[in-house]
Design goal:
The complex is a heterodimer of chains A (233) and B (99).
Chain A: H1 3-34, H2 39-49, H3 52-63, H4 68-79, H5 81-90, H6 99-106, H7 111-118, H8 126-150, H9 156-162, H10 165-180, H11 182-201, H12 207-225
Chain B: H1 2-24, H2 32-50, H3 61-76, H4 81-97
Helix pairs in contact in B: 3-4
Classes of the chains: A mainly alpha (233), B mainly alpha (99).
């Protein structure tokens, strides 16, 4: 495939992510402005961070006048999952991924971009990532701006229904491969069960942290029961 | 001004978390266990993020269940991401009209 078609494919795969981000970041924009930030500040946070849970926690800390250490530690805890995703993605990169490409693409590693990129069969090219990122970041930043500037104008019935969009996308990523591979099915079922238990029994564990624990335990179990076949060199 | 410092710390930490492993980890992992683990992690992460959070995602349990079931059925039949996502949202919206 030519370079341009990889970029285009990235853009197309980014559309559902962008639509999901648009609705989620819309909610973030509303909350940021209610918390005392300006439209510009809210939009800038979304452009620079590109992460939902971390940003929400971040604006709470700003609103509460928390310390910078607290800000750093909370971001580290909530977002450490991206390190795992980055590590996982680093195993799937095409040979054309030089250091500058890695520095740029790092910025765009989110749950959704990771989910879509990791489910691709062939090695990942930088241009594919740039397409995905351009679309996703546009949705995230635009949604924040719109929510911050005009959030109250949309009826609640619409914003509520938009809340499920991202999860619908996750389900669409998980289910087809889980039907084909036992290992994935087991990883998904264990992770979901642990996550429910965690939310019910240990509500004091923050959401980001709980996801890491449940996902790693589930993936360890799946890797032990269903190890992947050896790759040909 | 103070808010700019907050934003810089927030963005700096978040970038480093992503950049360090992505840029400096170049080796191909040999261990079969670790490769299997990294292969399963994305699916496990998405599952843990979706359940149980999806049931709170619309502000109403019944519209959330309608959206979840719609998404599961369409995903089971391999519909494209965007179709599944929008249909889940639409199902939640329509259910909301009757509540």
């Amino acid at each position: 495939m030519k370079k341009k078609s990889h970029f285009l494919r990235g853009l197309v795969h980014g559309i559902p992510i962008a639509l999901g981000y648009l609705s989620v970041s819309f909610g973030f924009g509303i909350r940021a402005v209610n918390g005392g930030l300006s439209v510009l500040q809210a939009t800038l946070i979304s452009l620079l961070n590109l992460t939902s849970a971390g940003q929400l926690a971040g604006i709470d800390i700003i609103a509460a006048n928390g310390t910078l250490i607290e800000m750093a530690l909370v971001q580290l805890t909530i977002n450490i999952r991206y390190s795992l995703m980055a590590l996982s993605l680093s195993q799937k990169l095409d040979a054309s991924f030089s250091a500058p490409h890695r520095l740029l693409v790092s910025y765009g590693i989110t749950d959704e971009i990771f989910g879509v990129a990791a489910s691709q069969k062939e090695p990942l090219k930088p241009s594919y990532f740039y397409g995905l990122m351009l679309m996703a970041v546009s949705g995230w930043v635009l949604g924040t701006f719109l929510g911050a500037a005009a959030g109250e104008l949309l009826p609640a019935a619409v914003t509520n229904a938009l809340g499920i969009l991202m999860y619908g996308m996750f389900i669409a990523i998980i289910i087809p491969p889980a039907r084909k591979e036992r290992g994935i099915l087991v990883a998904v079922l264990i992770a979901a069960s642990l996550s429910i238990l965690c939310a019910k029994l240990l509500p004091m564990i923050s959401g980001g942290f709980a996801v890491i624990i449940c996902a790693v335990l589930a993936a360890v179990a799946a890797a032990l029961i269903f190890p992947r076949p050896e790759e040909e060199a | 001004m103070k808010i700019a410092v907050y934003i810089a710390v927030m963005a700096g930490v978040t970038y480093l978390i992503r950049m360090l492993p992505f840029t400096f980890f170049r080796k191909k992992i040999k261990s079969r266990f670790v490769r299997s683990l990294l292969y399963y992690i994305p699916y496990a992460v998405l599952a843990a993020m979706t359940v149980p959070a999806i049931f709170d995602s619309t502000g109403n349990l019944y519209t959330a269940i309608a959206g979840s079931v719609t998404a599961l059925v369409l995903a089971f039949f391999n519909m494209p991401l965007i179709v599944v996502a929008l249909a889940a949202s639409l199902a939640a919206f329509i259910t909301g009209l009757f509540l």
